[in-house]
Write a structure and sequence with these properties.
Helix content: 40-55%
Order of helices and strands: HHHEHEHHEEH
Shape: elongated
Number of strands: 4
Strand content: 15-25%
Number of helices: 7
């Protein structure tokens, strides 16, 4: 009960940018982001999928429009992690796509749903994000940590002031 009361009544000041930066460095694993990839793709399904993919690849190589089938998650996939790609495209696809480099070329890949032509537009390596990107979460975590520290210190001070006699 006392811990709850102290937590509710403690006053924590706002952190400085330097304190947030230090907190980010001290807890880097908590904020680490996985590698992410962005790509465009054309999707083909059905018994003539491979022939249609070949036609589309030739059209795209000649800077002509290509027509594929509708795909549930659209033609443009933006900033997705390997885990998210596995959920959207099925096992194996994410591993193959994550190995591709940014290129203007269209690459043939297959997923659990059918055949694709994929062009990678952007890749972001795994790592610690910029302070500005996670500032809100950092602030909340810092305030929680400071509150816990204040409560612990207050409990220690209370224990020093009082003795408990047990019969």
């Amino acid at each position: 009960v006392m811990r709850f009361f102290l937590a509710e009544t403690s006053q924590t000041r706002e952190p400085s940018q330097a304190e947030l930066k230090t907190h980010l460095q001290a807890h880097a694993d908590r904020y680490r982001q996985p590698a992410r990839i962005s790509f465009d793709h054309h999707f083909f399904q059905g018994e003539k999928a491979e022939a249609r993919r070949l036609e589309a690849a030739q059209a795209l190589a000649a800077n002509q429009p290509a027509k594929g089938d509708a795909f549930a998650h659209g033609k443009r996939i933006t900033a997705q992690s390997r885990t998210r790609l596995e959920q959207r495209f099925g096992p194996g696809f994410a591993t193959r796509v994550m190995q591709l480099e940014v290129t203007p070329a269209w690459i043939k890949l297959d997923s659990a749903f059918g055949r694709h032509l994929v062009r990678v537009n952007d890749k972001k390596p795994a790592g610690i994000p910029a302070l500005e990107t996670v500032a809100s979460a950092l602030r909340k975590d810092w305030l929680k940590a400071q509150n816990r520290r204040q409560v612990s210190e207050a409990l220690i001070r209370l224990k020093e002031r009082y003795t408990v006699d047990r019969p």
